[in-house]
Amino acid sequence: MIRRTPLLAAATGLALALAATGCSSSASSTATVDSGVSQKADAALKEITGKVLSKGPNGEAPSPVSAADLTPDEVAKVKALGATAAIVMHYGGNDWATAQVNGLKAEFEKLGIKVVATTDANFKPDKQVSDLETVLTQKPNIIVSIPTDPVATASAYKKASEAGAKLVFMDNVPQGLTAGKDYVSAVSADNYGNGVVSAHEMAKALGGKGKIGVVFHQADFFVTKQRYQGFKETIEKDYPDIKIVEEKGIAGPDFAGDAQAAANAMLSKYADLSGIWAVWDVPAEGVMAAARASGRQDLKIATEDLGKNVAISLAKNELVVGLGAQVPFDQGAAEARLAAGSLIGKQAPAYVALSALPVDHANVLDAWKQVYHEDAPKELKDSYKN
Questions:
Q1: What totals of helices (H) and strands (E) does the chain contain, helices first?
Q2: With 50 as the cut, is the pLDDT of residue 161 above it?
Q3: Would you list the DSSP string of 83-120?
Q4: Which pTM value belongs to this model?
Q5: Contact 330/104 with Cβ under 8 angstroms?
Q6: In this structure, are strands 142-145 and 114-120 parallel, antiparallel, or unpaired?
Q7: Interatomic CA distance for residues 342 and 363, integer angstroms
Q8: Which residue, of 107, 297, 301, 378, has the fewest CB within 10 Å?
Q9: Taking the C-alpha atoms of 92, 97, 98 and 99 in order, what is their torsion angle to the nearest 10 degrees?
Q10: pLDDT at 4 over 90
Q11: What is the C-alpha to C-alpha distance for residues 187 and 12, in angstroms, rounded to an integer?
Q12: Cα gap 124→298, rounded to integer Å
């Protein structure tokens, strides 16, 4: 989900140090296939598929995406308005953000709503506040956004609401704003469920035992905290022979670089580390870089979000063993419909959530099409190993 940056150069110093001490992949703990653990994990993944485990930012029960549906008559009423919309992102340029914006724009076009602005705050609250102020000069009827910080941006969103814009949020909600009064609805993936999915994928790859590290998002960001919670609680409750021996937070904005440094430190400290969980795909790229630099091709990495680089790793059956994916295109389409409905007085639930999608080597190509509404790119298809 976070801004995609190129992978950093390999940490050659660490690789040389590990080689000098004989700490290479041969010194690592290699998972033994355990059919009982595999069956348990597969059963859990089957059970969660299609369900939502998360609550909303204010503890709301999730409503299904069908709550955003519009009838043909309602669509006709929306089209007659000639409405406008602005998309105010926390950052852009990565696969998740691109798919979310594509879903929004495609649905707004179907509804006859013109998108007048799309902004990228580069995960900086002050930049997002400035973006909102600039957008408001165009007087859009709708603003769809994801707050970088629920406190620092709250007054700017309140101002936008008071100016008459219908607000729909992705994932996170500004502090002090009330659904049905200050904003229409919040739409999210099942981020707790995504954490749960990645825990079961990790456990299956490890045969239910081993030492692992955790790279989490060190910020007051609702959805990434849910992922961390879902992963950690599932490991501790369901897989007692998997021990989390180290946790390191990353704050960005260089999330891949920060994660690579965190993983380097873990691999240096624990020669027998079996796996590392990363909070989304861009930090996972940093973990992948650290694993390659230290000769740890056997390291098991689990994460969330089906970005291109982790998808290629899954296709090759290298490093990344599984993840919980969001469906950002569908989320964007739902946000557009909820916003459009509000223009004609339609009431919306406070929180709409879409279920987590388990992804592993076997289904990565099909999952790509489900997530992005387009065929897997040639590079991904060519990487797939049967």
A1: 14, 12
A2: yes
A3: -EEEEEES--SSHHHHHHHHHHHHHHHHTT-EEEEEEE
A4: 0.83
A5: no
A6: unpaired
A7: 37
A8: 378
A9: -170
A10: no
A11: 43
A12: 36
